[in-house]
Write the structure tokens for this entry.
Amino acid sequence: MIGRPIKAGDALRKKLARLGLVTEDDLLLHLPLRYEDETRLTPVARSFCGEPVLLEVEVRHCEIQMAPRRQLVAHAFDASGDISLRFLNFYPSQQALLTPGARLRVFGEVRGSFWGLEMVHPRCQSVTAETPLAQTLTPVYPTTAGLTSGALAKLVQRALEGNDLADTLPESIRSRYQLPGFARSLRFLHHPAAGTDIAALQERHHPAWRRLKFDEALAQQMSLRRAFLARRQQGAPVLQGDGALAQALLAVLPFALTGAQQRAVAEIAADLAQPYPMQRLLQGDVGAGKTIVAALAACQAMAAGWQVAFMAPTEILAEQHYQKLASWLVPLGVRLAWLSGSLSSKAKRAQQEAAAADAQLIVGTHALIQAGVDYARLGLVIIDEQHRFGVAQRLALRSKGNNPHQLMMSATPIPRTLAMSYYADLDVTVLDELPPGRTPVKTRLVADNRRPDVVAFVEKMVTEGRQAYWVCPLIEESEALQLQTAEDTCAQLTADLPHLRVGLVHGRLKPDAKQAVMGEFAAGELDVLVATTVIEVGVDVPNASVMVIEHAERFGLSQLHQLRGRVGRGAHESSCVLLYAGPLGEIARQRLKIIFEHTDGFEIARQDLRLRGPGEFIGARQSGVPLLRYVDLEADAELVEAARDCVDEMLSGHPAASAAHLQRWLGQREELLKS
Ligand code: ADP
Ligand code: MG
């Protein structure tokens, strides 16, 4: 179904399209940013109030002043007092309007100046004593170059008059949530009655706003639900074995699964046995133990005779997974393959790819999705740290097989309301319990002029048998500079700590060299590991109990949380030292405060969301959020939940209204989701 296109000439249509306005529905739903009150007159003497006001004045005289710069100044008055109207840029037409004796309505903000009250660049209208005042508040629309809000207002008005504004919500839903009618709400928001509380309206607190936001949230949730149902229509291999391989793995683990892990394993196992593709996100804070859950899922797929691809965002992390999975599974007879983008020679690569075709479990980086890698029987795809991949990469891996099941993992916890939108077409499992025996990490904030104390602290901890990470600043502008800094830091620490073994790992190292250094650190042959953020995700060395982060003020919250999660994995008390250099900007100061005060990844994510807003929070357009213009996921959480509860009722009970609703709100926008 295609919406009614806006009737306009080519030039205007192009401008409107820049605002995303293509159909009449788009125009109707293009709601004002704010309002101006031209429904009442304010006496000049009471006009100095910090708010824009409408005055009715008579021009006394008008002149062009040349100093301090050329400007048009009119002196005007009403019964209560005098005011100057000042125009820094002006047209002859304005000059003509401002002739002595002219009666004008002027709209703008009044300010006090040395010479008394004045209004700069007021909007002027020539009137007679009979000219009526506006009956409703004046809408101010978001607009674009070459298109005034007033021109848009006329188009919107025409659309309001030319459409039936049928209500797409059944009466049952409207009364359940006490939602006013659509037409009434929409007309009100475009033209609120005189006397309406403008501030509340601009905060989008009004039953009419509630109605529109509910509709928007409902359209979004319906659309995501449809994507979810469409996925269910696709077939996928039924992965059901006798569970022997998973049992064998559990038997050799040195630990027992936590309750949360057991629940996750059971949920995933049930999904894999379905004839449609699983699309599940496993969320768990850093260190929650997601890897073993994924390994058990892999066992189920392999036992059923299918291949598993396990993809991680960095070489180091993929390598770690490979080592860990190999140590668990090779003794059980599983054939593993390793595939990475930087395997040295072509021949070696080819060999690996051949192996991949035969292997049961293929671990690697995004090399897994590159052309030339064919999987004979890919049944399950596991994506670690999924937020680090774009949608395209995820889709590419899915297209490698015939609709393999997908398990995505993320340690960046997403607040529930956001998850509902970002992942409404995913099922989400949360690991809400950390394995026992973790020691809380002590976080300290230290100004960088006290760096020697930190060096001494590291030395003391190493004497006690611990190991330390020392993370170098992120330098976004220059990778070369970042490398230089890491090398300098390493040299400096080597000089400061002559008895300690200091190693360096960074992104430019050849994979072999990288693995060698990581291997030495893991084996306890290095005391201090200087690193760039390559160690950000996933690295697991339980004996490391100190994490020093230099220039912590340059890191994002989730990065700091991830880095801090590298320690506190063993039995020893751990610390995270955040070295910072002042003066701190406001955002940096808040970030450090949050990371200092909170250890719970979900709380940190919530605060991060508040600091940054949902758009930046996850970045990629991998979600239903672009479908929301008016709903605020945090503030309107209750409405989003309510809308979600109505989705099935709408889709199955009111198919015609559903179609009309989706058409009205999403139109061609819905395609965004599918791309
Ligand atoms: P993440 O969720 O951050 O990926 P990992 O899977 O790397 O966490 O697990 C972190 C550490 O905890 C690993 O050393 C892992 O072997 C260990 N671990 C996982 N589950 C348990 C458990 N139930 N009991 C004890 N240790 C566990
Ligand atoms: Mg992990």
Remarks:
- Confidence is low (pLDDT under 50) at residues 616-625, 671-675.
- Residues 255, 257-258, 261, 284, 286-292, 411, 435, 538, 540, 569 surround adenosine-5'-diphosphate (ligand 1) (CB under 6 Å).
- The radius of gyration is 32 Å.
